[in-house]
Design a protein that fits this description.
The chain is of the alpha+beta class. Helix content is 28%, strand content 25%. The protein has 14 helices and 26 strands. The strands form 8 sheets. A 6-stranded antiparallel β-sheet has the order 9-8-7-6-10-11, with helices on both faces. Strands 20-21-22-23 form a 4-stranded antiparallel β-sheet, with no helix packed on it. Strands 1-2-3 form a 3-stranded antiparallel β-sheet. A hairpin with a 5-residue loop joins strand 21 and strand 22. It starts with a helix and ends in a 14-residue tail after the last strand.
Length: 493
Amino acid sequence: MRHTLYAKIKCIYENKPSLNLALQPCHVAEAAAIVQRTFPPATPSDTFRILAALNLLNAAVKLPWGKRLVSYNYIKGMAAKLFVHLTLHPQPHTHIYHSPQEQVTYFRILGVQISFHYLPHSKVLQMLQRQYPAEPQVWDGLRLQEVALELFRLAVPAEKLSVEHLEVKEVADRLSIPPPLTLCIRKRERKRIPLTHVFGEDKLTSLRHALNFNIWTATSFTLFRRKDQKILRFVRYDGHNYPQLLNTLVSSHSRIARRGENTLELGKIYYISPRLRLCSLPRSNYIITLTQNSYLLHEGNYSNLCVTWYIAAYLASLYPDLLFVNTLEYNRRHNDRKYYTYPHLLAVPLRADERKMKVWLIVDTNYTLHDFSTDALPRPLIEEYLAAEDYYQEFQFIRCNGLLGIIAYRRHILLPPLYSRIELRNYHARVMRPDGKWAIYSLGQETFLTDFIYDRIWYDPDRYIIYGSVCGQQQVIYSFFRQEVPAKTTWRG
């Protein structure tokens, strides 16, 4: 049964249609009804129905009309509740795993893997993972949202549905954020785990910010690194906003030194560095800061600051002084950082990833687009933008014969699949060989910073120290607040 189901899904995936054009609002109603009626699942088949329905909702919410019917909060909140239920009530042929490094939660049911990014109860999931260890999972490589309707029909054949009496609006009105999970950690101690950042994006708002946000004129802004949910705040010092700058950036953090106002430079943008220092951001680092943290957090909306190739080419044809950078190549240190003009954009190969995804950041030093409206863009370009894939996972796992490697920027193999385990931390990876020995690899420098000598590597967040264990002896590998660091090691947050 399991192998047959997986074979059917793989066959469908390999012959998949494009852009989920077959999805309709009625399918959202059907999927929402299945989730509401089937949760909590009593059998593996029930679990598969719920996951297939959530996968369909996750595909629909990305379509132009989808957010009117369902929200990311509902989809990912229900997936988190399902994870907790399956942890406490295991089922046969069902395997779950939460990866805090990738911020991905995996469900493997009846041989089929369905995954969700950034579930809102991540602290609860991590705690449960520690209490009930599960076998790690790595992504199978099937983007099941692209065959969401076909997968849903396998789980819930049309003839078994009975939602004729449910109007789409009635079902949509029921979709709300599930309540925060409350778990009994100890018999005498109950703790309510707060929600973490729930990613929510209005794509038309994103497009407006991508066109109009300008780091050269911005006074205060917040960037978001989606791959690991890191938030970075920035404030420009104008000579009169010193208290506000300290309150926004430093607040009550005891480890950050409060610089005197006389040490700040007028017009400079300030932020908190990985070493917890109040630093100015050089103008030469403006673009790399945006390409590595390419979402703007504004009034609760996470706006992707990158546009598609077609919009970039259209704008470049109208405004020759505009420049563009490609985040697929700009973030890699080993590349020459290239700025694209209109002729350069036209030279991008037709089948390149750069033409399919949102990877183009606008460099508008002359403020050319400060009052440009999204209404001025041709409607087909907007539709193509709304359907295009976001790009934010610079480093992904590759798998062969049960071993792991890393591919970067969807094109460069940094580590071949020769390793038993890999844990990603910001711009570094902890890598374990099949013999159980660990080393640290720099994803930025693309080289190992240590040899494979450690039996274990861990980070102490209270002391800001990375430790390693060698033959039972604890060693300091790196301290964020000490100078005795090996000369070849350059750490980035």
